[in-house]
Amino acid sequence: MMDGVRARKQNGEVVTGSNRKLNGHADPRERDASPAGQSENIFLFYPNIIGYSRIILAIASLYYMPLHPRTCSLLYSISCLLDALDGIAARHFNQSTRFGAVLDMVTDRCTTSCLLVFLSSAFPRWALLFQGLISLDYASHYMHMYATLAMGELGQSHKKIDQSRSRLLHLYYNNRTVLFIFCALNELFFIALYLLSFSSPILSPSLLPKEDSPGATIQPGSPSHPSSMIFATPGSAWAMELARANKMDSFWPWVIAGVSFPVMAGKQILNVVQLVKASKWLAEGDIQARRAQGLRKRVR
């Protein structure tokens, strides 16, 4: 036993309390050695199973998105709420993994992007804004993740932000209440916009009755009349019109949008801060690498 400890010390590997855990996550080297001598199946850990459930619910919500706004909103909301549950399960069962952290982040990015893509089609005038939000979300998180891998300690989580680097990001990632509020209300705002696209004539003028043909309806048997809802494919124009004919009340979507808008705007500011800080962190690493190689700025 002492020989093994000496060997690890000679190799520069010192086991301390700080590197037994990776930002609150158990060291994978410790998890590999199970009592029965069997390797664990990371893919079947409880938090990761919850992550798979999130993906299934998200895909189901995307299927119903053009056709059934109520069903879509319910499935999408459950998928988002499970985002908090998988973290609780990971801490409770000591099953925090790098795979689970990446799966969680990728699922968040993809589901939000898909909803924003739909909003771009529902509100064509604001398509450029929604496209910008998608780009900012992906760019800031990718840059931040890459900076953490390149400049951080071995196995450092992307949520481990030093307070000296950014107080805002430190508060955002290390305070679970703040993290939950920002993520939840950010998603709620976009869900509210989605519901308003089916219920508010202010945002969707196509919901207003046409004056040139009041009360005009397409009679059954017409080639353009769907005989049943099952024949209206979710991506068709008829599906959108049928869903908008459900007479949804726009009061509560407006309330939710108004309450969640400031937090959503704050989340976008955090994305900008995250992108700038990650860029500066990578630039610092480039300067250190150039100095180590003896490279200097070329003077003309």
Structure description:
The chain has 300 residues and is mainly alpha-helical. The chain has ten helices and two strands. It has helices spanning 2-10, 28-32, 46-64, 69-92, 98-122, 127-151, 167-174, 176-199, 237-244, 251-292; strands at residues 21-22, 25-26. The radius of gyration is 25 Å and the shape is globular. Mean pLDDT is 80; it is low at 4-26, 28-37 and 213-232.
Helix and strand topology:
Layout: H1 2-10, E1 21-22, E2 25-26, H2 28-32, H3 46-64, H4 69-92, H5 98-122, H6 127-151, H7 167-174, H8 176-199, H9 237-244, H10 251-292
Antiparallel strand pairs: 1-2
Helix pairs in contact: 3-4, 3-5, 4-8, 5-6, 5-8, 6-10, 7-8, 8-10
Order of strands across the biggest sheet? 1-2
Strand content: under 5%
Say how many strands there are.
Answer: 2
Radius of gyration: 25 Å
Listing every helix as H and every strand as E from the N terminus to the C terminus, the arrangement reads HEEHHHHHHHHH
Average of pLDDT: 80
* Largest sheet descriptor: 2 strands, antiparallel
Q: Helical proportion?
A: 55-70%
Enumerate how many helices there are, as a single number: 10
Helices and strands: which structural class?
A: mainly alpha
- The dominant shape is globular
How many angstroms separate the termini? 61 Å
Q: What are the low-pLDDT stretches, counting only 5+ consecutive residues below 50?
A: 4-26, 28-37, 213-232
Summarize the model shown:
63% of the residues lie in helices and 1% in strands. α3 packs parallel to α5, α5 packs antiparallel against α6 and α6 runs parallel beside α10.
